[in-house]
Every structure is written in C-alpha cells, then in structure tokens.
Amino acid sequence: MTFPILAAAQFCSRRGDIQHNLSGHLAFMQRAAELGASYLLFPELSLTGYEPDLARELALLADDARLAPLAALAVKLQLTTTVGVPLRGPSDSVLIGALTFTAAGDVIAYAKQYLHPGEDAVFTAGNQDCYLLLDQHRIGLCVCADFSHAEHAQRMAQGGAWLYAASVLISPGGYEYDAGLLSGHARRHSLPVLMANHGGATGGWLSAGRSGL
C-alpha cells in the first residue's frame, strides 16, 4: 500500500499583507508538489499573520476572489492545501479559520473551536469538527488550542481520522509542553500528528518553528 506524502509549511507571514503572503503560499505549494506531496498544511492565520488587532479589517469570505489562485494551483498540482485565514462568520463575527483547497476544486472551511484566553475579544469560536478526504484517508483538522482539549483529538480518532493536522502558533516557551500534548494524542489514539508552526515572529509572539510529524 502506498501512502500520501505530507508536507508542513513553516511559513513566515508578513503582518497584514495578504498579497505578499499569498505569493509566498503559492511558492510553498509549488515546492511541496515538486517534492511529491499531496497534502500541505500551513500555520494558524498564515495568510495574514497572527494579528488579532487586524483580523476584523482583514477577514475574508471563503469565496473571496483573492483566494482563487490558491484554488487553481491546488487543482493544477493535485495538492490539497490548508491555509490559515480570518474568516467572516454570521452576524458580523470573525473566526480563526482554516481553508482547505482540495485537488478536486472544492473549498472547505473550518473554524477554531477552542479559543485561547483573550481571543474571544475579537474572535468567535466555531462549533463543528472538520474532516478532509485525501485519497481514501481522512484527515482530522485542528487549529492550535483545539489540540489542548483532549476531547477534540478523541473525536477525530473516533471519527476515523488517519491523520491529525494541527495548524498552530507555538512559542519557544510553550513548545515542549505542546509537543508533549501532540505526541500524547498520537500514542493514545494511534493517530499520527502533522504540525505546521510559523517560521518567524508574528503578532508580537516569537515562534518556535520546529514543525513536524
């Protein structure tokens, strides 16, 4: 049996610059495809940077025309790709979103369900789990603090996930603890974990990098 090749993009976002960051995302996608990947995961809010003070101004709808190049390249490269973006929700809410552009041309939206303290001043929590289909495998998607709640990983495993994909911002001081949580989920549920962290500072936070599986 052959398995999909997975890639984590340790991306350095430029604060609030969607166009610049979009170009970087497209370059990462091209490189991942050259390496044979069929799934690529970006960090939390990768398209804007983790910038809560700008999130309401920058929030997008899933069908925003600026995202069309991502959708087109995912199809061209046959590379299902998950990017981080603030999403406009109902009643003028803003969500910490993860948009997945599939190799078949679909766009799948997920909103972070468990917010860090203080994030609720800007963001609204999502309320639905998200699975992605990659060949015959199911990917259970999470955004950062989601994985700190054991019940989230447990639901993913019980839902038949083959992989737990974590789009995150983890600082150097929190890395060992958070890596321990992720590896604990992997062992407890026999569920591999793919983690994509930022490659540089964003939103006033340093990033530990160290993305991996």
From TrEMBL:
UniProt cross-references to CDD domains, sorted A to Z: nitrilase
Protein name: NAD+ synthase (Glutamine-hydrolysing)
Transmembrane segments: none
Species the sequence originates in: Pseudomonas congelans
Keyword S-adenosyl-L-methionine: no
Gene3D superfamilies tied to this protein: Carbon-nitrogen hydrolase
Coiled coil, from the record: none
Keywords of the record: Hydrolase
CN hydrolase domain segment(s): 4-213
